[in-house]
């Protein structure tokens, strides 16, 4: 049995297996061939994004009523995992496009907002971002300094955001911003407001020069006297932070699936390379130290996949899943980073060359221990679930 056949067969029904197989074929035939050049030139391939939309990937966890595929979060995770095996930048484009772009509209938007924005987002014709992180507000999202005040039937926003994915592409339609809209019982009242790209005063700053995810679109944003209609409030006023936390819990499952795909991609590449590489007259794969390294890599992939599958199934069943999502992200993020390191070691000098996928995974995977909640935040969530407070 090949590595790839075994890795795709974890407790899936026929429809889920077909989805995983379809995405895998697409990843191998379309995504992988362009990954090196996209990484080298820091270019998000919008043609591939369009094809992902045509496959229905951006609409997977949404109802058919709103133009989705009527699937669930497990289906989304399977798609993200399959693409992340060969290109994390496109995988995070899908993950953020769904979890941070479309999902807030789907979960908290008015019917008018859903009708206006969801069709293009779920078709992959448009992308959207979520403006949460700021220079002084990362893991401590409650430290948000961006403000929004009502004036003459408009929200007037001032502030800045950083590390915002899908915020500056040619097809980015809007960014949903968290902003302080007042005070309530001595605490900041944080709301979320839809700000269309191109709005006067809304500046998408030059893209970052990142260590990894180089083909993913990521920018700092500046808002100076930005005015949007009062109707652009997303969800109830003052519930923006609470609503974001629920979105973040779901997003952690998707990031865990992405990390699992990355860990799997590293394993598959390392197994293949070890079988072909001759060292002192024998294949590297015959050496026990290499075998043990590959075995540990396999165990990490298996554990990470079980963790995110479990969290996704809890979410899809309408059961509490915040702790399980944190566990999944913690385990899978570490699996991706550890497997990237071990795969690079198996490749030796070739592992230091960007043309090899393991080199890109090595650079890409570190963010999986930082983005959408650092490792330390996941540990804090888990500790609190144990009743440990302080």
Description:
- 51% of the residues lie in helices and 17% in strands.
- With 390 residues, the chain is an alpha+beta fold.
- The strands form 3 sheets. Strands 1-4-5-8 form a 4-stranded mixed beta sheet.
- Strand 4 and strand 5 form a beta hairpin.
- The chain is globular.
List the defining traits of the structure above.
390 residues; 4-stranded mixed sheet; alpha+beta; 4-stranded antiparallel sheet
Helix content: 40-55%
Shape: globular
What characterizes the major β-sheet?
Answer: 4 strands, mixed
Report, as a whole number of angstroms, the end-to-end distance. Answer: 50 Å
Note poorly predicted spans. 5-9
β-strand percent reads 15-25%
> How much is the average pLDDT?
94
Instruction: Please give the count of helices.
Output: 11
Per-chain topology:
Layout: H1 3-7, H2 14-41, H3 46-54, H4 73-84, H5 88-108, H6 111-122, E1 127-131, E2 147-151, E3 154-165, E4 172-184, E5 187-196, E6 202-204, E7 218-229, E8 233-234, H7 240-276, E9 278-279, E10 282-283, H8 288-316, H9 322-347, H10 357-364, H11 375-385
Parallel strand pairs: 1-4
Antiparallel strand pairs: 2-3, 3-7, 4-5, 5-8, 6-7, 9-10
Give a quick rundown of the structure:
The chain has 390 residues and is an alpha+beta fold.
């Amino acid at each position: 049995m090949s590595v790839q056949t075994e890795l795709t067969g974890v407790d899936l029904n026929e429809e889920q297996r077909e989805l995983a197989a379809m995405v895998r074929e697409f990843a191998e035939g379309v995504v992988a061939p362009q990954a090196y050049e996209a990484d080298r030139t820091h270019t998000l391939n919008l043609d591939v994004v369009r094809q992902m939309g045509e496959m229905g990937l951006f609409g997977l966890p949404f109802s058919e009523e709103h133009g989705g595929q009527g699937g669930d979060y497990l289906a989304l995770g399977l798609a993200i995992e399959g693409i992340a095996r060969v290109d994390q930048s496109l995988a995070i484009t899908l993950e953020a496009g769904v979890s941070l772009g479309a999902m807030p509209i789907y979960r908290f938007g008015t019917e008018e907002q859903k009708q206006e924005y969801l069709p293009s987002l779920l078709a992959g014709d448009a992308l959207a971002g979520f403006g949460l992180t700021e220079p002084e507000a990362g893991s401590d999202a409650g430290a948000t300094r961006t403000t929004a005040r009502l004036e003459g039937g408009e929200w007037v926003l001032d502030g800045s955001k950083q590390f915002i994915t899908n915020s500056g592409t040619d097809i980015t339609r809007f960014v949903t911003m968290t902003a302080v809209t007042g005070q309530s019982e001595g605490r900041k009242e944080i709301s979320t407001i839809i700000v269309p790209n191109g709005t006067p005063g809304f500046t998408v700053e030059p893209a970052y020069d990142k260590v990894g995810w180089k083909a993913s679109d990521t920018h700092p944003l500046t808002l100076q006297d930005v005015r949007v209609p009062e109707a652009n409030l997303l969800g109830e006023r003052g519930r923006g932070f609470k609503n974001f936390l629920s979105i973040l819990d779901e997003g952690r499952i998707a990031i865990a699936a992405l990390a699992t795909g990355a860990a799997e991609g590293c394993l598959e590449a390392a197994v293949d390379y070890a079988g072909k590489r001759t060292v002192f007259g024998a294949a590297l794969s015959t050496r026990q130290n290499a075998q043990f390294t590959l075995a540990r890599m396999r165990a990490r992939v298996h554990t990470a996949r079980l963790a995110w599958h479990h969290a996704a199934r809890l979410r899809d069943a309408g059961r509490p899943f915040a702790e399980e999502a944190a566990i999944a992200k913690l385990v899978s993020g570490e699996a991706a980073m550890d497997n990237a390191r071990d795969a690079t070691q198996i490749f030796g000098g070739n592992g230091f060359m960007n043309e090899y996928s393991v080199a890109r995974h090595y650079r890409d995977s570190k963010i999986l221990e930082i983005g959408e909640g650092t490792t330390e935040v996941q540990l804090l969530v888990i500790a609190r679930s144990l009743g440990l407070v302080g």
